[in-house]
Amino acid sequence: MSTNIIVVLGAGVSGLTSALLLSKDPANQITVIAKHMPGDVDVEYCSPWAGANYLPFGAEGSRLGKWEKATWPHLQYLAQNCPDAGVEFQGATVRVRNKDKNSTTGKWTAELTKPSPWYRTVVPDFANIPSHQLDPGVDNANYFTSVCINVAVYLPWLLSQCRRRGVEFKRAIVSHVVDAATAHHSGKTADLVVNCTGLSSMTLGGVDDKTLHPVRGQLVVVRNDPGSMHMISGTDDGDGEGTYTMVRPAGGGTILGGSYQMDNWDPNPDPNLAIRIMKRCIELCPSLVPQGQGIEGLSVIRHGVGLRPLREDGPRVEREKIGRFWVVHNYGHGGYGYQASYGCAETVLELTAQVLSQKNHCNL
Q1: Please, what is the Cα angle at 114 between 111 and 118, to 5 degrees?
Q2: Residue 228 CB coordination number (10 Å)
Q3: Cβ partners under 8 Å of residue 8, min gap 6
Q4: DSSP-assigned letter for residue 122
Q5: Distance (Å, rounded) from C-alpha 72 to C-alpha 283?
Q6: What is the Cα–Cα distance from 295 to 23, expressed in whole angstroms?
Q7: Spatial CA neighbour of 58 closest among 121, 19, 114, 9
Q8: Is the pTM of the predicted complex or chain greater than 0.90?
Q9: Is 205 annotated as a binding residue?
Q10: Is 245 annotated as a binding residue?
Q11: Residue 347: in which H helix or E strand, if any?
Q12: Which of 94, 133, 183, 234 has the most neighbouring CB atoms within 10 Å?
């Protein structure tokens, strides 16, 4: 059996999930190379800032929708069978205001907030909330069982699963994507590189994807536990602001969000935005605080800012020959990296198999 030398560039959720699925083939010898690793906290390392949850955004029949659909069974399995992964089922209520239709957040959540979305047959317990139960100003709402992921547990869990299968990890800063091909731990030149560098693909030599944009997300992590997940399609505070809550399992705290600020690179939390986020979340989910209390009833753990790697044409999951090296890209997932992670990684597997079949055919 011939050995396939593979380098995965990037150790966010896309890189780790790709490495994990690739590692299940014993012929693949894999090195993950990354500037940042699980446990690091840096604004350019997006994955640790995510909520994260499963709220599908892809249109029915789109590549993103298919990747999200393909990811659900994996997350469901983890929630049912792997408590050490930090993934748990959680009820989700999604509310819609018709007046948000043309706003930034309204467009972002357009598929999620449809009265009869495609994912109604995928997630458990999907139901439309009766009109007489809707809050004032809300035009329709859905409920279903989702999952919430404690990313501080899940990312190290992914790394540990990779290590169990022999994947090696190296810290490095790579300026050109083909440089990764010569950085395999074996000293051999890689047969291909899997590029999972997220927003860094904007400036990564050989890629230089100028269709990528940072979408700034600000959140507040609190100790208060409302017990479920909530989201609404928009706010009256600003076009690039949103409102959502989710409870991270395994003591990860409750996430209060948020913002969707295109091309905003500011890594510092905005205290005024933080106040608006907390007020909106309490209005959306009054059980966050003791009855009659406002933001003074919140026990704040920390404030955070992450930059979602949004690509204009959607995630780039495709193969490309750069110079004499094959590269399989898997980046540009915006705010849906976790909920599309396994679907995208399965496509990486297919593309990798195509490249390696050519190599192995030439070696016959």
Answers
A1: 65
A2: 17
A3: 15, 18, 19, 22, 30, 31, 32, 33, 193, 194, 196
A4: T
A5: 30
A6: 46
A7: 114
A8: yes
A9: no
A10: no
A11: helix 341-362
A12: 234
Give domain 4-359's CATH number out of 3.60.15.10, 3.30.9.10, 1.25.40.10, 2.60.40.10.
3.30.9.10
Phi first, then psi: give them for residue 155, nearest 5 degrees.
-65, -45
Contact 158, 17 (CB under 8 A): yes
Contact 335, 63 (CB under 8 A): no
**Is the Cα torsion angle 306, 309, 312, 314 positive or negative in sign?**
negative
State both tokens at 300: 């704040």
Does 170 have pLDDT greater than 70? yes
Return the residue matching tokens 């990564």. Answer: 204
pLDDT of residue 113: 87
Q: Please tell me the distance from the alpha carbon of residue 359 to that of residue 353, in angstroms, as a whole number.
A: 10
Two structure tokens written together for 4 = 């396939």
Q: How far apart, in whole angstroms, are the C-alpha atoms of residue 121 and residue 114? A: 13
Q: Is 220 annotated as a binding residue?
A: no
Domain ranges of the chain: 4-359
